[in-house]
Amino acid sequence: MMAMKKVLNLCDKHGFVKPVWKGAEVSSLKFGPIGEFLVNNVRQEWYLGNVIDRNDNVFPIHSHASQLSGLGIEEPFCQIKSLCQGVLPFGIAQTICDGTLIHKQINDTTPPHAAFNPSHRTCLRSLLFVSPTDGRQKFYTWQQKRKMWWRKFSSHPGRFSLSDIIETRSEDKNVDGNDLRVNILAEFDWGPTIVETVHLSSLSSSQLSNEQLEALKVKQGHKHVLPDVVECILSLEVASLAFLCDAFSESSKRLLLRLHRRLAPLKVGFVVNLSDSSVSDRLLEVAKHLSLSLRQKAVSTLMLPDIIKKSQDLQINRNDEMGIPFTIILSDSTLNDGIIHLYSRETTLKEQVHISKVPDYVKLLVKNF
């Protein structure tokens, strides 16, 4: 519990997450202004992995929990089936803006740590409709893909693993197949936490109305069949908190968040290292210009007014605690030769870069990692 408190205290300090404590337990969590950047980045990476970077045709939809009944996707399913000319596989990537009940129903096998049980959840749900003969293979493929997605953005990839597969044989004679479920687990000091569930289900004709049955059937050869469904579901809030806990690092000298640069809320911070206070205003203007140039390249920056007042070490430590992967250090000589030092949180090394090349170079560093 002490480790969790340290993570939450650091996150609260810098505006990631504000915990509401009830005794020794966290009763709720509220994401702050920096945390909202993180949540948005996690959502974007999930979207890229589940919609854009796919061999199959996958289309996004957005819904409220109150709109869900059964699969809750009959109408968009028909539209997508028509668009794909009825040929499997195809998929739906669904954002459910209040999916608290859905997430609890799916992950009810292991009670989560209190901090990983927010009162509101945005569920990100991927549904892949496949031929019944391909269901199991797709299920095994996607559990591995989803595990690798978590490991890709982790500073401790071995933390994320798959649980044993839970198999439930259907009692419905009309269903030729099994119900398979596997959880993706994150192992922390306080125990394992379920961060995502991958589920294979065979649709049952007896559980569907005639209208739903006709809507969900697809043509396979000379027959019309109900597809198998591979479902991947996670909570956006739980995923963001899991990445924060994964990134937390403590040494004798400092605390820091080793957030993956694609997830980091802010990519670049600034430090002005002065030896001559008479040029402070000019260097501050240079820093503001660089910040604007980076933002125009879609690189988020932290530009604070105290960069000409605090020491270089204090500012770098603050940026490290906030998970900022790069810090631009300007000095008196920058005004003469246009050279800045680019500090990397990951390597703690500094490299010289000319001001004119900074925006494109930093964008490349963030994009290609």
TrEMBL record:
Any GO BP annotation:
mitochondrial DNA replication
Where does the record place the Anticodon-binding domain? 271-363
Gene Ontology terms: cellular component: mitochondrion
Q: Which domain of life is it from?
A: Eukaryota
Please give one Pfam family short name: HGTP_anticodon
Query: Where does the record locate the signal sequence feature?
Result: none
Q: Which Gene3D superfamilies does this one have?
A: Anticodon-binding domain, Bira Bifunctional Protein, Domain 2
Q: By what name is this protein known?
A: DNA polymerase subunit gamma-2, mitochondrial
